[in-house]
Amino acid sequence: MVTRFAPSPTGYLHIGGARTALFNWLYAKHCGGAFLLRIEDTDRERSTEAAVQAIFDGLNWLGLEADQTPIFQFSRVERHREAVEELLQRGGAYRDYMTPEATQAERDAAKAENRRFLSPWRDQAPGHDQLTQSHVVRFKGPIEGETLVDDLVQGEVRWKNKDLDDLVIQRSDGTPTYNFAVVVDDHDMGVTHVIRGDDHLNNAARQTLIYEALGWTKPRFAHIPLIHGPDGAKLSKRHGAQAVGDYAEMGYLPEAMRNYLARLGWGHGDDEIFSDAQAIAWFDIADVGRAPARLDFDKLAHVNGHWMRLADDGRLTELTVQALERKGAAGDRNETFARLARAMPVLKDRAKTTLELADQAAAFVLKQRPVALDEKTQKVLDPETRARLQRLLERLRLFNSWDVFALETELKAFAEDEGVGMSKIGPSLRGVLTGGSPSPDLAKTLAALGRDETLGRMGDALSGALSSDA
RNA sequence: GGUCCCUUCGUCUAUCGGUUAGGACACCAGAUUUUCAAUCUGGGAAGAGGGGUUCGACUCCCCUAGGGACUGCCA
User: Can you tell me the ipTM of this complex?
Assistant: First the structure.
């Protein structure tokens, strides 16, 4: 059992392509088969080295590793020519000497008359003077009967053969076209299941005919619906993120991406959050839906939040530092890393992306002393409150168990000793610690900042050395 | 124009002829509360329309409407 992902390197790895790759990967793993990667670079004009790299990078980030060395389609042109020759000999193809202009004219005429495009060379041997002329090779498709594709997702789909034109399989420059190269490569690579976007459903009919003409065993086809943008329209630039690399930068985790993408067009009962192992155990291509799905960033964020809470703190810290660096807000890397690492256990529960983590961190953890206090905080710091915070500061200076639970108990004890509720302490304490920004529960905020920073920030505010928003 | 595909809450989906049509995200309300979140509880929310088939259709068939893909010497 062999599946493959076969993108053309003409741009970044599209989110739709990523899901196609994921489905191929999942199904191969599910069946204990192999997942292969083939770069379809026969269009020399549009294929680029950068795009090839972008595809590799995207797949690596998503964790969808191919089980064999990737194959570059262009490196196989000799084999493709050989196959064209074989088909020619079998009488399943013919050389077409029509000029591009004449071809276009015939195509237009056929379209206008609502009939099949036919080249006069289909049933005509070339004269001696033509043999050296530039020409293409066309597939000689049947005119009668129908072609059936028994698709794993779409079911049985039929075409009347008269509606299927004789497609070019080899260009005048000797290179193979997509529909032919795909058949040859899938056959040679032993691909048993072709899982791809349903924009290829029509091609499946043409490819089926080629398999039959060559006498080769056909793979099973599975055409999965395309992914649409949040507005239901085709995915486009205006939706912002299209490349999987964009999702990495937006702060999503690859495991969350796999989880979310798997749920787009596929489901397993009421299961929403599941591991790779579960996805592999449950995934069946036959359970994939036939309607296109829209991207829902809220749900992606929710799934991502779940996986973030399970993620390793060190890893999240590194990702957050990277996000800060992209914003140019990282400061000294070592110090930033150390501060974030201490705060991470507290921060990770509150964020849905590492980008949010970075924002929260910048909002209070990473602020430099002395922290500027906002108007609201300054207002709340009347003499009585200052005196109380001063007493708290004295008390915390003598307090050594700097963990969330102990701090919480200590704060409550302090409030009790003062004979006031937490509402008399909370706003001002938070204010001097964060400058007024929202932050986690007080004990957590103290723990996240650490002892020295907490005492330092309190001292700064109470010394009265600063009072403006500088 | 032609060929082909699609259509359950706002969104992702479950249902594979008999259910009060289930879950999740989002939304609303309540609980909690020192801020903002998170969390917990509850709530509103769906079978595109019309014909059939059947004792019985979201489920099967047909038509209509609305989306989409393809229609290249691109993939």
Answer: 0.93
